[in-house]
Amino acid sequence: MIQFKALLKKELKEAFRDKRALMVAMMMAIMAPIMIFAMSKMMIKEMASTPLVYVKVTGSEFAPKLIKAFADDNIKLFSDVPAEEAELWDKRNIELTIPETFAQDMLDGKRIDIYLKADFSEKPMNAPLRRIKETIQNYAQAIGYKRLLVRGIDVNLLRPVNVIEQDTSSPSSNFIMISMMLGLYLLMAAFMSGLSVAIDSSAGERERNVLEMLLCQPVSTLKIVLAKLSCASTIAFIGVLLTISLTFASIGFVDLTKIGASFSLDLSAVVIIVVMLIPICFFASALQLFFSFQAKSFKEAQSSVTMVVLIPAMLPFIMTFIDDKPKWFDWVPVTGQSLIMEDIFKGLPVDWTNLALTTLVTIVLTAILVFTLAKKLTSEKVVQSLS
Q1: Contact assessment for residue 96 and residue 56, using Cβ atoms and an 8 Å cutoff
Q2: I need a surface site. Which of 35, 129, 234, 305 has the fewest CB within 10 A?
């Protein structure tokens, strides 16, 4: 135990001595809350406001009531665009063509084709085009209802079945996108924060011939690996704590009530998340140490470990595209923790069985990596990077 304490003290002293590497390690924890804050503000602005949209309308004089409906929804003619925004809306080039026969066709009760021309693949066009189409649909629906009423027909005949939505989700579920991002950033903080420390204490020490001197001492390789793992995991855990605390602080400056959402976690939920991520910090550091020792140089270790940590970091993203998730997702490291965090953010009760299973599997895999690495360090090929 004394040897382990001495090794851990040595690793921690070296990790905290390099201020630049430490700053890079904490960059993810600091940037994540800033990104969540910025995205929250943008999302609320897009959902709660109806900014002005400018459309190049051909034949606006043939449908004055439709143009008025557009104006009521902040959709203006291109001739009204301010000079400073003219270039932007000219580039977006949203064109609406109203036929000359609009008034006569309306009088005759014929169907009228209005052409909406734009680049529908551009993401910034989604909101303006959606609003234009909704305005036209609402206008057409209102005209249709009036025609039926004039003919003495009940408008309810058009809707023989009506769906009444009763949303059972909690208010925090409306903020699910940001919650999902927080869960992803917490997992990435666990993988990214200890990355530089893990590489430096493995491939870096080997290049500086420190590892060889360390292995010459009467200390078991298992203790050496555990000391390096504990040091890198501590840095990763600090990154997780920083991410969650700074995110809570930044979310406090976002007015979620504008979109009818809320984001609040009680102390017990925060404690569950933090405790659940401790094994992930150890697993991530063990994975990084394992692949760093397999690399032949410090540079190769940086490349290989960076690619390795991106795979588990992307798993939550992949899960969003799977409707029917396999059962084994509940207990596999990263996916299991991600699903549990998703339930917590939605306000659902924690599945303690899945939490215990995914924690157990994560600890077992970490232990396998540690023992395998300790055994590999007894080989001269690994120490001298000859393999």
Answers
A1: yes
A2: 35
Whole-number Å distance between alpha carbons of 291 and 366: 13
Q: Contact 334/280 with Cβ under 8 angstroms?
A: yes
Q: Which class for 131: exposed (0-12), middle (13-18), buried (19 or more C-beta within 10 A)?
A: middle
Closest to 75 measured CA to CA, from 143, 27, 130, 119: 130
pTM exceeding the 0.85 threshold for the entire prediction: no
Per DSSP bridges, beta strands 115-117 and 95-97 are: antiparallel
Helix (H, G, I), strand (E, B) or coil at 306: helix
Quickly list H helices, 49-175.
64-72, 83-92, 102-108, 126-150
Backbone angles phi, psi at 96, to 5 degrees: -130, 125
Q: How far apart are CA 223 and CA 208, in angstroms?
A: 20
* Residue range 318-327, pLDDT digits in tens: 776 776 777 7
Q: CB under 8 Å, gap of 24 or more: what pairs does 215-219 form?
A: 215/377, 215/383, 219/3, 219/7
In the chain, the largest separation of any two C-alpha atoms, in whole Å, equals: 99
- The pLDDT tens digits for 199-255 are 888 878 777 777 777 777 788 888 888 888 888 888 888 888 888 888 777 777 767
Tokens at 68, concatenated: 């008025």
Which of 232, 236, 244 is closest to 271 using CA atoms?
A: 244
How far is Cα 378 from Cα 222, in angstroms, rounded to an integer? 10
CB 132 within 8 A of CB 66: no
Q: SS3 string of 274-286?
A: HHHHHHHHHHHHH
Q: Rounded CA gap, 282 and 229, in Å?
A: 7
Residue 56 has what DSSP assignment? Answer: E
Q: Is 34 helix (H, G, I), strand (E, B) or coil?
A: helix
